[in-house]
Fold these 3 entries.
Entry 1:
Amino acid sequence: MYDIYKVRKEFPMLNGKKMQGHDLVYLDNASTTFKPRCVIDAMNEYYEDYTANSHRGDYDLCYKAETKVNEARRKIAEFINSDVNEVVFTSGDTEALNLVAYGYGLKFLTKDDAILLSKSEHASNTLPWFKISNMTGCHIYFVDTDKNMITPENVKKAFSEHPNIKVVAFAHVGNVLGYRIDIEEITKITHEHGAIIVVDGAQSVPHVKTDFKKLDIDFLSFSAHKMCGPTGVGVLIGKYDLLQKMDTFLTGGGMNESFNSNIECVPYDAPRKFEAGTQNVAGIIGFGAAIDFINEIGLENIEKHEEEIHTYLLEQIKDIDGIIIYNNDHESNLFTFNRKGVFAQDEGTLFNSKGIAVRTGQHCAKMLDELICEVATVRASFYLYTTKEEIDVFVDALRSGGDILDAYFND
């Protein structure tokens, strides 16, 4: 598919880094990914060669910065198959989802309406809707699941029980269990009932081909930093007619055609009306470079590689006793587990002592314990640069960890 060892050389964080005296094994890619040299160089070039604000001046430096921002917007639109004017730059997935909640939900939802969520959602796709419910009086319902999986049948059932649902908000891929839901079919059901669908793509867009137009979803959000890009930048992709109807979330310079002392303001058309103030120009340019990098490797190749890594891991651990796996039948890059009788953070500390970075805790999905009956879990997550050799190190630590933890707790 691609030469993973050649690709790894493009990442400064993968070349000679140590943790606790061991070679670093980074398995927290669902939280954030490492950045290749091309992304770092693109951002440095902006800071070193043409620093200027975008859409703010009539001189060469500003023109180049504006051109680069427009190029990044076009690259993202092509990557996700949307129109260019449907790409709104945000500070990340969280701001994008808040923008939909306040710009659309607060404007159009009433006390007679409802929002459909799942108990496995990340806080970014939960708390904004909680706030809208508090502000408008609209109801929030939670979809039923089958073995922790949202199915089209679950969604049909929710609409039959609650015909007042006007917004459906789900993650395409959950950030803890990693289940990939049938967004295309769920979108059809949602539209048949006159509702809109908001898709959190933070854990899906970096890993699987996501076609905004084909899926026919109304809003899609994702962050650059989970797909080899910089932190502090992301996008909301929205159908243009819906973006035009929405209210702005932030107001200020750069988002309006005019305002006057009669307390009147005329905003620009979308997407610019949502991009108030100085944008993260360097981050946007870095985002564009990250898209180029992923395109060069190919999303299909990335998905195949992650499937191989996941299959290899499950094969290696099948004879280890005491490991509780919560998602061994999923399709994503996540492996979520606990060791019987061991608190997740203690397990994570053990991995850290061996130079292995994993995520422990509730993973910002604090209602999930109602489904899996666990307060905290350990999550290992892979990406395009994860090797089988790193999985071997992880498995060795998992295998030997039982004896170490038993000795510690029984001392």
Entry 2:
Amino acid sequence: MSTHPSRLDYSRQSPELFKKYLDFGMAFKMDEALALLVDIRASQLNGCAFCLDMHVKQARIHGERELRLHHVAIWRESPLFTPRERAALAWTEALTRVAPEGVSDALYAEAREQFSEEDLSTLTWRVAAINGWNRMNVAFRNPPGSKDKMFGLDKAGLT
């Protein structure tokens, strides 16, 4: 259990913005399993306990294998991910930890081999959205699992 003092609930302090950002985050038309891998990896990189907890539970509800969830952090060494998933995870890392030189042409080419222009654009918006959620939840230390019932995550059977 966290020993940090409570912080404000940004969803209650800015309900209109929260609703609009939630709508934005739900607007993506992409493979749900891939989207959750992206959300999990960005949340790992950003140290967002709330989002990592949420997206692991969502992935389990959607049938993701437990071993793959454990391997997201080591995806480069793991044989469990497809070339498309690897490209998405590499893209996620590059956009989450933006290097001073930006995204390399080699990484862009790798992503374009796996994704159409529209799909890469959608993936990029997805990465931007999860990074925003991560920043909100890191800033206000939303406790992991605190909204499970509201989002139906209690169905994951993970406690």
Entry 3:
Amino acid sequence: MLFPKKVKFRKWQRTRENPKKTKKATRGTKLSFGSFGLISENSGEIKTNQIEAARKAMSHFVQKSGKIWIRIFANRSITAKPPEVGMGKGKGDPVGFVARVRPGKIIFEIDGLDEKKSQEALRKAGSKLPVKTKIISR
């Protein structure tokens, strides 16, 4: 699974984001590598295992033809407390990493396939993600 070699901070603070006033992404909004891409329509956090599941679904469908690019990286740690620990006993230990996406951020790109196959592969990948997605093309 994807996770950073080294992080500056072990634990991040949670941010308060109003879903109705979420800012649009400014970086990573245009297709750079492939002909088709999967773009997020709302904001959210995508876990490493969800990115991996989407990647596997695409690769399995594409087989050996075509090329896939992952445009997001999970670099933000998330924490969880063990079960039956009372309130006010400190912040939990890091349990995994997430990638934060905003509306308009490209998540995956694909190239080397015809339009129908590319769109089906991206549709399968989008169904594995917790954010609403849309398929775009050049």
